[in-house]
Design goal:
single chain, about 140 residues, mainly alpha, Cytochrome Bc1 Complex, Chain D, domain 2, two-stranded parallel ribbon, globular, binds heme C
Length: about 140
Amino acid sequence: MLRSLVLILVGAVALSAADDRKESGDASSVSIFDGVFTEAQAERGKTAYEAQCATCHGLDLTSDSGAPNLVMPAFRFGWHRRTIAQKLEKIRTTMPQGFPESMSDQEYLDVIAYILHFNKYPAGDRELDADQKELLERIVIEPLP
Ligand code: HEC
């Protein structure tokens, strides 16, 4: 009797631990492949990029002025395994070169959406949103398959 009670308790603890794992897994995993920006956002970002970034980084995200390219293979070193929040922070505080923090967080995110779109990451039905900082910290820019 005692033995089966112990077994039931052990089973219950194991089950609830599995539940916890599942919940925290769900909450923390937002895949870059799920469509984390929209076509419309990438389009807005394209306009901002062409006005604020293209003189140095190139209209096709390939630079002929010495600024880093924002496509593969250079993209791998600057972007892979970073979170959207990390890229936002880096770009916001350094770009456009000479005029950091001259755009709103939302405009920087629109430009990031454009750069991701240009690199063939899929668009979806939600936007990268400056008011969702925690979510931005959880989206990791995994390499495309
Ligand atoms: C006046 C030229 C110039 C402009 C305009 C400019 N950049 Fe840059 N950018 C550079 C240079 C030079 C570097 C490399 C040195 C450095 O990191 O500061 C760089 C580095 C970067 C990097 C780091 C490399 C990487 O792949 O992570 C990113 C991202 C970037 N720029 C994005 C942008 C964005 C987005 C804009 C527009 C909002 C922009 N830049 C505007 C010249 C420029």
